[in-house]
Amino acid sequence: MKYSKYFMPTLKQIPSDADIVSQKLMLRAGLIRKLSAGIYEWLPAGYRILKKVEQIIREEMGAISGQELWLPAIQPKELWLESGRWNIYGKELYRIKDRSDREFCLGPTHEEIITDIVRKEVRSYRQLPVMLYQFQTKFRDEIRPRFGVMRAKEFYMKDAYSFHATDDDAERYYEEVVKAYKKICERCGLKYRIVEASAGAIGGSFSHEFMVLADTGEEELAVCNCGYGANLEKAACLREENSSSDSLPEMKAMEEVHTPNFKTVDEVSKFFGEKPSKFIKSLMYLADGKPVMALVRGDYEINDEKLKNRLNAAELVLADAATIEKIAGTPAGFLSPITGKKSGIPVHADYSVEHLVNAISGANKKDYHIKNINIHRDYTPDSISDLRNAAHGDKCPVCRREQLKFIRGIEIGHTFKLGTKYSSAMNAVFLDEKGERKNFIMGCYGIGVSRIVAAAIEQSYDNNGIIWPENIAPFKAVIIPVSDSIPVKQESMKIYELLSSKYDVLLDDRNERAGVKFKDADLIGIPWRITVSDKTIEKGGVEIKNRASQSAQIVEYDKILDFIK
Which residues are 361's β-sheet partners? Predict the structure, then answer.
């Protein structure tokens, strides 16, 4: 490809509304343009990268007997009602009507559609297992689109679905997909980690995320040298061991203390001269519209996903101040563990409050707190379980020896063991060996094609621009003639024709200064820069520099192809 004919409009200035490195560099390198908030146009060079990632994924899906198909983006409401997700998916779901007033959605995912296909066409266990996958644009009405193509309203991904006769076969195949995803990450040149994750709106018995490691990652991961890893939603917290009764302080009588205008743990902590770990935070939620309370130690945070799973709730929201006052009769900030007992509200406590003695909490009364509140004497939770976010100082829940480390990552893939969540809801059945009707055991496996492109940049760049892994770079090499002399032009064209027979190569034939060409080559991130000049011709070769290296070397003409290879 000749640069003079290629549509790749680079920018010198960083766009003012770009908030992360990948977004800035993709815009500056002429890979994408922003059409609207969360909606991007992929220009030729960006699209070329997207398709290279897609092809790597396609090859690895084919290697594990995946069969590619294409499913509609517009999905009928009726199928989502069957699965039970129409009313619980949330405001991210684009809901539309046609001219006949029939309701549809723009697909954020395709579990319902694929289950409907398989229940119509697969009758017997002899047709199993089967794995079907597609590449498609997905839609989510993000409340706050950000991070460029990373959190957009429209994005490109591969989603795959497998159907099995038994749990054992489903778990065997799940491991095959995990291995395939590892190969995808490695072929795309990504440093990554597999972590346990919450199944979220997709559902299922367990799931894992594939996280590209980057300091700019939007997700925090808890990891251990023993191999354990989980995102913050899923990271397990150990139950504290009960201290000997001989070492416990004596329980004191409860005492109400006037704390005017002090609501937060930090404010009350300073007032009492106690550490936040001495406090009990009492939070009110609405679980499927019904009030519940959650208790956690003052220096920790409630994990909404853990609480939601504990309650087996479809929807969980933190109650606002007006709701708290209406239900509990007290302003927000003064709730007490005793509130539930007085109001008949279920109370669920985190392990962290289980062994607090003479703790401090709200008094269920404006401008008052309680000193010396004790579990089982003054209040009894309906349950005690792991309900908090993992925090610095926590020990690994697997090896139980080392402290967890916290790193950041970007999710590019997610695998789910769905079980019969969708097949039972949608009556998707097959006949087993005994002729009995059984629900399909399902797996679901997604990987973000457009996310991989952005994540690769977040992981590999410098002050000059992108440093692409070779397998997904828009071009393998760029040839830069640095003068208009006839010999330089002729040698540049000869090298271009030689390399073009094997690789995607860009010939920068623009009427620009050498410095401009070098800057654009670095910005775009092309792995190999081949410089042709009168001086290199005199030396019988060309200057070749790798994008990630600071040094260049002269390579003879007849060795260029082998050198690049």
Answer: 370
Domain ranges of the chain: 51-236+406-458, 255-385, 475-564
- The SS3 of residue 493 is helix
Burial zone of 544 (CB within 10 Å; 0-12 exposed, 13-18 middle, 19+ buried): buried
Which amino acid is located at 339 in the chain?
T
Structure tokens given for 75: 């999905």
Do the beta carbons of residue 495 and residue 503 sit within 8 Å? no
Question: CA nearest 444: which of 70, 68, 83, 111?
Answer: 111
- Domain range 475-564, CATH class: alpha beta
- Given the structure tokens 């640069």, which residue do they identify? 3
Query: If 0-12 CB within 10 Å is exposed, 13-18 middle and 19+ buried, where does residue 565 land?
Result: exposed
**92 close to 137: Cβ distance less than 8 angstroms:** no
Token pair, residue 220, equals 């925090």
Tens-digit pLDDT profile for residues 149-178: 999 999 999 999 999 999 999 999 999 999
Q: What's the fold here for domain 51-236+406-458?
A: BirA Bifunctional Protein; domain 2 (3.30.930)
Amino acid at 288: D
- First-residue to last-residue Cα distance in the chain: 19
Report residue 241's pLDDT band, with 50, 70 and 90 as the boundaries: confident
Give strand pairing partners of 162.
131, 443
Retrieve residue 157's tokens: 């991904």
- The CATH homologous superfamily for domain 255-385 is YbaK/aminoacyl-tRNA synthetase-associated domain (3.90.960.10)
In angstroms, rounded to a whole number, what is the distance separating the alpha carbons of residues 314 and 312? 7
| Pairing, β 405-419 against β 383-385 | unpaired
Got the DSSP string for 524-535?
HT-SEEEEE-HH
